[in-house]
Design brief:
single chain, 727 residues, alpha+beta, eight-stranded mixed beta sheet, 12 helices, 41 strands, globular
């Protein structure tokens, strides 16, 4: 295999999904940086079942950064892969592989996804003293972010004496296998920033815990810890460990925010990344962005039947001209039922399929590749590569398909990757004549979820085929059981800038931003956990980015102090709404230091806002509802504080105190704010009653582990509380 071919495969293993509109200098993604000729390592998560594997890995030059039980976060030298590095999402084991390795999951590269924001639902009241509400500002709590582009000495992160509130910075350089630790103002001054072409971390950190002026964040007195990386998911996990380590050293609780995402993966919380992060979330509250693909056609859930034996889709790049198809399609069965997949080329001018390669049902990580380079053709067991003259007459490049039963969830997965180029122009306009297509087939009764990577590839429908949509537009990184995921609503409809101009948008404040990601997962969980202000949020920008890219962003506010110019700009995305929630949780932790992830999820679910002017619960675009910071704080203290309620009234949701239902880890959670005596009933879809139980307290749980997999309905007779869910 030639070097160019291998490098392209490496790049595709790092497909990302941006959670906010990236600056031009960053808009093409970081995969070029990760796989530059100077890089000596790649990041990966390794699962082992024997301690013998540790010694073998270290002998091979693998650097183990962090470990939790059987899960290892590693830098792996490219030389270790012995030609298998091109295997993207998991590296196929060979007879020479070290013993004791269960799975190697290559670190997916991920990418980034306040004055008015604090007014929603009187959120700023948690910072103010009142006869019934003492102030909570995150004091004594560690606010941690894993991100890119921090300006540690921005005014937003300095205390009243000019000292940094960012207590520690850890930078990971995955490509070269480096870790840099900084802990003082002098070190920050010499270091300056981790990335001169990005400012995302500065914007996010200010929303979460900035402490200056009108644009201060939700936890303005929290200690801040920032970890930066080249944005592999291994870099994120190592950063989370660093934040937790600092919090333990200080004897404090931590909230960790990751405004990042990736749309490929099982979306069921079983990836090694999700397993590892769930364990971190047993010790800290962890918040992730839902994603910004809620208005994109890049997903297709399909149930195969006698009348629908297969589903075909056209693959379109974001530029729509199709001269450089590049990206990935990730295909998952709901269980071990295998899927057959084939790909081909459609002639858009003639409206017919030109090529369809044979159906493939691949297992054990085996692959089938079509290439335009005759020298790449091979017939190695488990990795067939064919040269095709018709393909080569249209494209220079390759398409590769892999298949496997995933070891962590027992589900069948197929992964299609491609990197090609064509110069053939359509007769109808300045775009490519030919379009790649993919077709998936399953036995009747088999369910499949089909995802494009979104950053590089979207779907278009084909004649007489199911139409793609956004029903599964939720980041795989945020699917862990212990993770709090956040969508976004519109924060404001206009923003003034320092030039005296007023930028307006047509969206209604308080409405869900159509880009906000959402999904109902296989286990019935409605995602995201909550939605918060994220569209048109003013926050800090890195001065170092601004110096490198002057006049690149409209400036909404500025402060000049001792000759230094500090700037604030507007941005939008779930990258902005997630730190809003994370900062809120830091205030809750100040009030209730013992609050667990499970308890925080319960509080959020039971105090999320609904009512006549807000969305109904069943609408999946709104997840589980709008965050109410003050109501959640009251419930957290009343329900989970060891000292009991400090409020004279148990007032929660002013608009709606009716019973509500939610699902968590095969448990039905009942929120009954009035403590009324009632019954909860669970039936199957035919109406057969399977569970009936009396309730009388404000929060109760019903164990559903006795129910077989299927779809059920829970309801409280005499109320509007009703929940349809899948186990």
């Amino acid at each position: 295999m030639n070097n160019t071919f291998t490098t392209r495969f490496l790049k595709l293993s790092l497909l990302v999904a941006s959670l906010f509109p990236l600056p031009v200098a960053f808009a093409k993604g970081d995969s070029e940086e990760i796989t530059s000729p100077d890089d000596t390592h790649y990041a990966a998560i390794i699962k082992i079942d024997s301690e013998d594997a540790i010694e073998d890995l270290e002998k091979a030059g693998v650097e183990i950064l962090r470990r939790r039980d059987e899960l290892l976060l590693c830098y792996i030298p490219y030389s270790y892969s012995n030609g298998n590095a091109r295997k993207s999402r998991s590296i196929k084991k060979t007879p020479g592989s070290p013993k004791g390795i269960v799975k190697i999951e290559r670190g997916r590269q991920v990418a980034p996804n306040m004055d008015k924001a604090r007014e929603w639902f009187e959120a700023s009241s948690i910072h103010s003293s009142s006869p019934t509400f003492p102030p909570f500002t995150g004091k004594g709590v560690v606010a941690g972010i894993c991100d890119i582009g921090i300006d540690p000495l921005h005014l937003a992160f300095l205390d009243s004496a000019g000292e940094p509130r960012i207590k520690r910075i850890v930078q990971y350089k995955e490509g070269s296998g480096e870790r840099i630790l900084l802990e003082s103002k002098e070190e920050y001054e010499n270091w300056k920033t981790d990335n001169y072409d990005n400012w995302h971390a500065s914007h996010v950190a200010n929303i979460m815990a900035g402490g200056f002026g009108d644009y201060r964040g939700m936890a303005p007195d929290a200690d801040i810890v920032v970890t930066t990386s080249q944005l592999s998911d291994v870099g994120l996990l190592c950063g989370a460990e660093d934040i937790l380590e600092y919090a333990k050293e200080q004897g404090k609780r931590a909230v960790i925010n990751m405004s990042m995402g990736n749309y490929t993966g099982p979306h069921d919380g079983t990836s090694l990344f999700s397993q590892y992060l769930d364990r971190i979330a047993e010790e800290a509250l962890v918040v992730l962005s839902a994603g910004n693909a809620g208005n994109s056609n890049f997903t297709l859930p399909v149930d195969f039947s006698e009348s629908l034996p297969s589903a075909a889709l056209a693959l379109y790049s974001h530029d729509w001209v199709q001269f450089n198809p590049y990206g990935a399609v990730d295909i998952w069965s709901a269980n071990a039922s295998p899927l057959r997949v084939r790909f081909g080329i459609r002639d858009a001018d003639q409206g017919h399929t030109l090529i369809l390669y044979p159906w493939q049902e691949l297992h054990n990580g085996d692959s089938f590749t079509v290439t335009s380079n005759p020298s790449d053709a091979s017939d190695v067991e488990g990795a067939v590569t064919i040269f095709d003259e018709t393909f080569a007459s249209i494209y220079s490049g390759w398409f590769e398909l892999q298949g496997n039963i995933d070891s962590e969830n027992g589900r069948y997965q197929a992964l299609l990757q491609y990197d090609a180029h064509t110069d053939i122009v359509s007769s109808g306009g300045p775009w490519a004549r030919y379009v790649p297509i993919v077709e998936v087939a399953g036995h009747p009764g088999t369910h499949a979820d089909i995802y494009a990577d979104w950053q590089f590839t979207l779907f278009r429908s084909l004649p007489d085929q199911p139409a793609p949509g956004s029903l599964l537009s939720f980041s795989d990184l945020a699917t862990g059981q212990n993770i709090i995921s956040v969508g976004m609503y519109v924060n404001r409809d206009h923003t003034p800038n320092i030039a005296g101009e007023d930028f307006s948008i047509s969206r209604k404040p308080g409405s869900i931003a159509p880009e906000s990601g959402y999904s109902t997962l296989l286990d019935g969980r409605v995602m995201p956990s909550t939605v918060a202000p994220g569209y048109n949020v003013v926050s800090a920008i890195s001065r170092h980015y601004w110096d490198a890219h002057p006049d690149s962003e409209p400036i909404n506010a500025e402060t000049v102090l001792n000759g230094d110019r500090y700037l604030w700009v507007t941005n939008h995305g779930t990258s902005m709404s997630a730190p809003y929630v994370a900062g809120t949780l830091a205030c809750w932790l100040e009030a209730v230091p013992s609050l667990t992830s499970s308890q925080a999820q319960q509080v959020i679910a039971q105090t999320n806002r609904f009512g006549s002017t807000l969305p109904d619960t069943p609408n999946p675009r709104h997840g589980q509802g709008y965050l109410d910071p003050a109501a959640g704080l009251k419930l957290a203290i009343s329900a989970f504080s060891s000292t009991g309620s400090i409020f004279p009234e148990y007032g929660l949701n002013k608009n709606d105190n009716n019973p509500r239902l939610s699902l968590e880890c095969r448990k039905l959670i009942i929120w009954n704010p009035e403590g009324m005596a009632a019954r909860i009933e669970v039936t199957d879809m035919a109406g057969t009653q399977l569970i009936s139980s009396s309730i009388s307290s404000t929060i109760e749980e019903i164990d559903l582990s006795s129910l077989s997999p299927g779809v059920y309905i829970a309801h409280i007779p005499g109320s509007k509380a009703r929940l349809k869910f899948r186990l």
